[in-house]
């Protein structure tokens, strides 16, 4: 019997018929011509059911590592998609290169980064991950394709949630950096209006994100810590860092060994944590040079932190709403707080231009992400109501985070859905590529 | 599929006219249910449930008479094919009967046990195989406090539920962790089935049973009592000497 598979949120889970870890492209192509539906999976950091398929073949691609070619002149990296962003960083950073876009964890594979078209704290300036690719190789049930930006199949694959085929190799343009440190500026904000105002100055910085205390209500609703950053220049380093400007040694604090009791993260404990975090942020406000990990990947220091949510798991609700719909951000934070759904970690940022990805999430507007314990009474109904408002505003939810969207709202949120489905049918006429997410959202008529 | 909050999209009800099942299904509809298959012997009662759920959920009625267990497999096959996946199955079929007359008739005793135990067990077996091969699923079995300690006044119904309860608990062990099976043990539920009876202590409503059922499902439990206090009442009752238990008037 195979083991249960779920996303980072732990819910929903399902049992595949098989789970394989192919290390080469021929193995993958062979599996794609088999009889089972296939779901590609990387490090399992999508939150919901995007990288699993009940009764099918879950193909974990973390062993797919035949290629790693860095052109030191241009910074162009051609890499097999089984490499994680962390593994890539450990190899390229000492040579003076950085990822053009990085999400909040380095534990995602290059393949997952493309399939989810991930964004980072520099989206307002530099867009999403797929916008920095010059080529990708896609293994489909009908064969191997070499794709370039502009190809319809490229647009379907970038942010396509693994439904066009298995992404096996990408060529990405890296960013030159002088050091491995970040010059960060932290500014506490007192209200949501204040947070919006401070975040609107993000044009001055490459990186910008705000942490929000989602448990604060009334006039303090939306208070938080705005954080901006730049890659530190060599002359901005102090102390021992000067001798090794590009040193990169990720640190681990420890691992959560077993699922916590389901009530560990309750409205009271989450409020206490958020208040303490805010006060610590107020005390530590100002400018400082910090490590890459503490700026980009603070949660990566704690292994399996998702276990803090216990066996019921958690949802990450991430939406984007267009500029002009700022009220909706207040509605989301306020109604979840009022409904007794404590968000342990809440993040707000501004998005810039959208990529060509047909199902790519980021579009110009404000994005808000909240981590909420799953399966609490009333949560499902409340989120469904918020979904309708988000869709009506022209916004959408992020599929890489989703575990519970109403399929009837999908097309309103992703207007290129039908075009995406058409391309999928051309690439995969038999419908081999299938995930629980695609079935739940009835993408391509799957059910 | 089942979503991250544990809500199923496609739901099958065996005993589609049941008021408790209808109350559960109504909560599931608010959580995003897309398709509902109601299987049962009487189209009128199932049509009432369909009306109550409303047009937002695609609903189909399937004629199924559990007094003929041979009907089970083809009807469930048809319903499952229409649903696509059996995300959640609620087994709610039962007849209360009329104990004083039924207990004297071998035919009526056989019929009662067929509808309350044999038919549901056959249906559960059909559903379980499908759920095992699809790799996920929820099953809710409506048992009764009457099956926990079988009493003189309703031993026919009680014995039927006792058989089903035991069968379901065994099946739950077979299915876990691949699928979850929840046995629901309500006390006296004020409903159409019990309208002619005087309510027992700790009487409850279909809506309350539905709420307790969903929170037990979210918690991943195998047995839930409704109201919850019944669990402890029955723990005590089970250990009473028979001579004393016999004198307790309900």
Observed structural traits:
heterodimer; A: 447 residues; Uridine Diphospho-n-acetylenolpyruvylglucosamine Reductase, domain 3; Vanillyl-alcohol Oxidase, Chain A, domain 3; 2 domains; 5-stranded antiparallel β-sheet; 24% strand; globular; B: 250 residues; alpha/beta; Rossmann fold; 7-stranded parallel β-sheet; 10 helices
| Shape-level CATH architecture of chain B | 3-Layer(aba) Sandwich
Number of domains of chain B: 1
Strand order in the largest sheet of chain B:
3-2-1-4-5-6-7
Low-confidence segments of chain A: none
Average predicted confidence as pLDDT of chain B: 96
Low-confidence stretches of chain B: none
Largest sheet, strands/sense/barrel of chain A: 8 strands, antiparallel
Instruction: Tell me the structural class of chain A.
Output: alpha+beta
The domain tally of chain A reads 2
What's the CATH class of chain B, please?
Alpha Beta
Estimate the helix proportion of chain A, in percent.
10-25%
Subunit organisation of the chains: heterodimer
Number of H- or I-type helical stretches of chain A = 13
- What's the pLDDT, averaged over the residues of chain A? 95
- The CATH topology of the largest domain in chain A is given as Vanillyl-alcohol Oxidase, Chain A, domain 3
Second rung of CATH, namely the architecture of the largest domain in chain A: 3-Layer(aba) Sandwich
Number of strands of chain A: 22
User: What is the fourth-level CATH superfamily of chain B?
Assistant: NAD(P)-binding Rossmann-like Domain
